[in-house]
Amino acid sequence: MSRIEPVRSFSSKEVRDIRISVNLTQIAFAAVLGVSKKTVEAWECGRNTPSGSACRLLSMMEKDPDFLEKYGFVESE
pTM to 2 decimals? Predict the structure, then answer.
């Protein structure tokens, strides 16, 4: 039987660090995650926290900063 990793939560600093590690602006990061720039701002300021699928994607980006490029979510310039 498969073991499923629990969805973890992210602090405001962790969200910002992940965004910086994947070299995206708040606008581009929001577009990748399917949320508004205001949502990313709220996460990074600690007014709100990501949940559900956003946390899964953050986990993937944290484990592999090249994840978005590898799977064609972003193209390097």
Answer: 0.92
